[in-house]
Automatic annotation (TrEMBL):
PROSITE patterns recorded: MFS, SUGAR_TRANSPORT_1, SUGAR_TRANSPORT_2
Naturally occurring in which organism (per UniProt): Corynebacterium tapiri
Gene Ontology annotations for the cellular component aspect, listed alphabetically: plasma membrane
Keywords, comma-separated and alphabetical: Cell membrane, Membrane, Transmembrane, Transmembrane helix, Transport
Transmembrane portions of the chain: 21-41, 53-76, 88-107, 154-177, 189-208, 241-261, 281-303, 312-331, 337-362, 374-396, 402-424
Molecular function via GO: transmembrane transporter activity
Residue intervals of the Major facilitator superfamily (MFS) profile domain: 15-429
Protein name: MHS family MFS transporter
Cellular compartment(s): Cell membrane
Record's keyword annotation contains Phosphoprotein: no
Chief site of localization: membrane
Length: 447
């Protein structure tokens, strides 16, 4: 008969697997839209009377608009996760994301439905945004709150790993469909296949998530009247920690601005339309960068357990800065190997400023408002950094005729993230239990 410690270790591994796979499926759906927006939607979902440049900007705006609804998802899911538990939220968000994705796969185009096509597309993208806003906080806390002592960074890198795995999966599926269809077939109906495949992924994700146990921290809060969940967690959060929410969101915003060059579809669109690279080559390069992002994401979690979250961010932002400076000079060569190298260098920095986020955000907030705090901080970061990064990049390229302004924008965002990191204390391995003192000395200048 297995010991209690063996059962506990087994449950911890099951939680990490469940949150990682489920989050990967969510991000597959989310990133798939962004990639297809840059490759297909700008041509088939919007009025042909638009100029190609305007159609690209509008298409990326449809990617970004979903971010405006992520705080709504974060608010709803954070409240429910703090009041009713982390696990139920994960099932609800997975269903919402998956159903919206499958419906996108059967939408009529502008040629068939006129203006109704982009309207329906944007409504479904908004549903994806609400789901993505609610998904992350519950998944992150479930992993971190189950983690053994000294391994929160590693366990928390599980749901973080879901993002590059989702990018890898969406890029590989798109590349395969592109390889086995002609250009005409791909633009006609081939692009729909990856969206429809999401139906299979939903079933897999629901099966895995249903087997995951509730967070021990939340279970303790429910069982004891003196540590009961907050009745108004969001109100408490915004009353006590508004500056922490803002500064912590800028840390991740710096990461997402760079990350959404690829996950938001800008690089795919720019490389095929301006750098003259083949779509299959571009998708393969993005898949390679996703592998680099995955490895550096796990590395960041492990390293942060050794040297602290704050020090890991500082190293990560320096590497990300080098990636910012190298990306477009390599992309603009029009050479497939150089293009791949540029994306991989960028992805290493992105992973080193991403893998420790789950543990970092969990350690910022006390147990009664932790899900609300982590969720709303993450959602705000996505708006400030990733939401319109592809739109901004497309507009800067269109107005300047080059990519130097895009590089300057990414460098500025990275430096903002570095400064924000320095403004918060390192709280690595702080007590996460409901009994822990609700420490206000999170800001670097408070003692």
């Amino acid at each position: 008969m297995p010991s209690a410690s063996t059962l506990n270790a087994r449950e911890q591994r099951r939680v990490v697997a469940g949150t990682t796979i489920g989050t990967a499926i969510e991000w597959y759906d989310y990133f798939l839209y962004a990639a297809v927006a840059g490759l297909v939607f700008k041509q088939v979902m919007f009025s042909p009377e638009m100029s190609p440049g305007l159609a690209t900007i509008v298409s990326f705006a449809s990617v970004g608009i979903s971010f405006l609804f992520r705080p709504l998802g974060a608010f709803l899911a954070g409240y429910c996760a703090d009041r009713f538990g982390r696990r139920a939220v994960l099932v609800a968000t997975l269903l919402t994301m998956g159903i919206a994705t499958v419906i996108i796969g059967v939408l009529p185009t502008y040629a068939t439905a006129g203006a109704a096509a982009p309207i329906m597309l944007i409504i479904l993208r908004i549903l994806q945004g609400i789901s993505a806003g609610g998904e992350w906080g519950a998944a992150a806390l479930l992993s971190v709150e189950h983690a053994p002592a000294g391994k929160r960074g590693l366990y928390g890198s599980g749901p973080q790993l879901g993002a590059p795995l989702g990018l890898l999966l969406s890029s590989v599926v798109l590349a395969l469909v592109s390889a086995f269809t002609t250009e005409e077939t791909f633009m006609s109906y081939g692009w729909r296949i990856p969206f429809l495949l999401s139906a299979v992924l939903i079933v897999v994700g629901l099966f895995i998530r249903h087997s995951v146990e509730e967070s021990p921290v939340y279970s303790t809060m429910v069982e004891r009247p003196d540590t009961a969940p907050a009745t108004n967690p969001m109100g408490t959060l915004l009353r006590r920690f508004p500056l922490v929410v803002l500064i912590a969101s800028l840390v991740l915003a710096a990461n997402t601005a760079s990350g959404y060059m690829t996950t938001g579809g800008f690089i795919q669109s720019y490389a095929t339309s301006s750098a003259g690279l083949d779509r299959g080559v571009v998708l393969s390069a993005v898949a390679a960068s996703a592998v680099g992002w995955s490895l550096s994401t796990v590395a960041a979690g492990v390293i942060s357990d050794r040297i602290g979250r704050k020090n890991t961010f500082i190293v990560g932002f320096i590497v990300q800065l080098l990636g910012n400076l190298a990306l477009f000079p390599l992309v603009n060569t029009g050479n497939a190997a150089a293009f791949t190298a540029g994306l991989v260098i960028m992805s290493l920095g992105i992973g080193l400023t991403y893998g420790q986020i789950a543990a970092y955000y969990a350690e910022l907030y006390p147990a009664p408002v932790r899900a609300s705090g982590a969720s709303i901080t993450y959602a705000l970061a996505s708006i400030l950094g990733g939401a319109f990064a592809p739109t901004i990049a497309a507009a800067l390229t269109q107005s300047t005729g080059g990519t130097a302004a895009v590089t300057a924008y990414l460098v500025a965002m990275t430096l903002i993230g570095l400064v924000a990191t320095l403004c918060l204390r390192d709280r690595t391995n702080v007590d996460l239990s409901p009994d822990a003192a609700q420490d206000r000395s999170i800001l670097a200048w408070h003692h």
